[in-house]
Each structure stands twice: as structure tokens, then as C-alpha cells.
Amino acid sequence: MPLIRLEQAGVTVPDTGRVILAPTSLTLTEHRVAVIGGNGSGKSTFARLLNGLVLPTTGRVLVDDLDVARHGAAVRRKVAFSFTDPSAQLVMPTCVEDVELSLRRTVRDRATRRAQAVDVLERFGLAGREDQSVHTLSGGQRQLLALAGVLATDPEVLVADEPTTLLDLRNTRSVGELLLGLPQQLVLVTHDLDLAVRCDRGIVVADGAVAFDGPAAAAVDSYVASVAR
Ligand SMILES: Nc1ncnc2c1ncn2[C@@H]1O[C@H](COP(=O)(O)OP(=O)(O)OP(=O)(O)O)[C@@H](O)[C@H]1O
């Protein structure tokens, strides 16, 4: 598991100077880290810092001592990111082609790539859907396919930004179980407090700053209490 470290990493909007995330220092050593907080609090910005999708305007983010601002590609091979809306990630016409696209750099041989993609689909509950159009998948199946594509290359960390927000109860449960059961480190941005509480650590973001950082159950309590005030 790589070591993700924020050293006074913060984000301000260059033109206006508005603070989106105040300078933050922390190290992510736990297997599953939940990031919770209200709408617009800065959770996605925090999550995107972790693999260089957003660069800090102050301080540094390091992954195994690689500065994400200078080694973005190497960092993204270790730290994968999944978006709330799987449409942001699904670009090929069929399920198997979409997973093959993820594997194109790591598996050069076409037949091997196809076989691996078929295996990955099976692991993510999409067996038999190899040639189905991604446009005809249900919302839950689309989210599973997006996660399959992201995890196909076996990254060391998955940062998942609200992966269950668009899903119904059944799919929320199946995607949630899949994510919590991953061997990889998981950084889970979520409004689903039942999922958050099952993580090893909880970070509450409020008004562009870390408001609480500790055991997940205590983080959830702190967030719920802050809403009740
Ligand atoms: N590039 C940017 N320029 C200006 N404002 C931005 C930029 N990126 C984010 N923001 C603002 O910063 C705040 C935090 O955004 P962010 O997406 O991190 O919140 P969030 O906690 O993930 O919210 P949600 O739960 O609604 O997804 C929001 O008010 C957003 O509009």
C-alpha cells in the first residue's frame, strides 16, 4: 500500500483567492478511509488532490514520496479514481471493450487482453454481458462496469467519489460490499453513513477544512451532531 501524505496541501481559486480547501496535513495509512460532510464542503476537492486530478495551490501531496504535481502519471498508476457518474468513465461501445481499453497499456497481446477483460467482468458480476452496449446497462451495472475498468489494472489505492449516490438500495448494497471488500486501500467519499461507519477512519470535511479526523464511528457521530446544531 503506498503512503499518501498531505503536507499543508490546500486549494484556493487563483482568480478570487477563495479557499476551497484550507492547508491540510495528514497521512492515510488505514485500509478504508471514509470522507464525509455536507454538499460543497470540499470532499471532492480533497479526493481529487490524492491522485493529481486537482493540484494543490499551497503545500504538497506525496504518494510514496512522489510529488503528485510532478509525477502525475506515475501517481495515477498507483492511485485510481472513480467518478460519481459512471458516464464520465465509460467511453467504449460494449462492456468488454471498455475494460479492454483500461488494459491496453499493461496487456499488449489482444487475445490475452480479451481473456483478462472477460475475467474482470465476471469478478464484477457482469458475466455474460461482454457484448452488451454500455448504454443499455442499468445504473448499478454501469457503476460496476466503471469500477471494473478502474480496478482492471490493479491499482494500489481506489479513491471513489460518491460511488453509490446514483444507485438504488440493492445496488448501493452490492457496490458498497464490493468496495469494502477490496484488498486495495479505499478512500471513499460518501453521503452513505452506513458505509462510512464501516471504514477504519473517518474524515469530516466542513467549510473547506478537515473538521474531524478519527475512528469512522466517531467521525459519523461528529458529522451528525454538527448537522443537528
Ligand atoms: N475550480 C473551482 N473554481 C471555483 N470553485 C470551485 C472549484 N472547484 C470547486 N469549487 C467550489 O468549492 C466548493 C467545494 O467543492 P467540492 O466539489 O469539493 O465539494 P463536495 O464536498 O464534494 O460537494 P458535494 O457533496 O456537493 O459533491 C464548492 O462550493 C464548489 O463550488
Automatic annotation (TrEMBL):
The keyword Metal-binding does not apply. GO terms for molecular function: ATP binding; ATP hydrolysis activity; ATPase-coupled transmembrane transporter activity. Signal peptide: none annotated. GO terms for cellular component: ATP-binding cassette (ABC) transporter complex. Residues 4-229 form the ABC transporter domain. Keywords: ATP-binding, Nucleotide-binding, Transport. InterPro entries: AAA+_ATPase, ABC_transporter-like_ATP-bd, ABC_transporter-like_CS, ABC_transpr_CbiO/EcfA_su, ECF_ABC_transporter_ATP-bd, P-loop_NTPase. Belongs to the ABC transporter superfamily. PANTHER family: ENERGY-COUPLING FACTOR TRANSPORTER ATP-BINDING PROTEIN ECFA1, HEAVY METAL TRANSPORTER. This is Biotin transport system ATP-binding protein. It comes from Nocardioides terrae.
